[in-house]
C-alpha cells in the first residue's frame, strides 16, 4: 500500500498482457524506463487467499518467492497454478494475493486481447500501444 500512497503506480503501464492469464504492471513508465523498487517483500502466499479472477498478486522472480518488489499482476481468470502448495521451494510457494479489483474488470477484459509484441528487457507480451495506469487507489 505504500506504493499506492506514494503514487508510485500513477502513470505506469501494464507491460505484460497474457490473454486468459494475467495483466502485469507496476514498474515501467510509458517510455519503458523502470522505476525503483522500495526493496524486496517476503512472500505471504500462505495467507489463504487464492489467485482467483480479479485478485491482485505480487509479481516476483520465478526462482525466489521472497523477491517481490513493486510489480503486481491481476488475474484475468482463476489461476490455481499460482496458489501456495508448500514451502519446499519457490516453484511450489505460489504468489501472494494481497488485493482485488473492486471496479473495472470490464476494462481488463478489453485489455486482455490487445496486440502484444516482445520487447527486450521488458516482457515477451508488451502491448503494442501502451496501456497506462493513470492512478492507483486503495479502498478503505
Tags for this entry?
24% strand; 140 residues; alpha+beta; single chain; globular; six-stranded antiparallel sheet; two-stranded antiparallel sheet; 3 helices
Give the overall pLDDT as a whole number: 95
Instruction: Give the helix tally.
Output: 3
* Count of β-strands: 8
C-alpha end-to-end distance: 11 Å
Regions with pLDDT < 50 over 5+ consecutive residues? none
Strand content: 15-25%
Overall 3D form: globular
Class from secondary-structure proportions: alpha+beta
Relative helix content? 10-25%
Strand order of the largest sheet: 5-3-4-2-1-8
State Rg. 14 Å
Largest sheet, in brief, is: 6 strands, antiparallel
Order of helices and strands: HEEEEHEHEEE
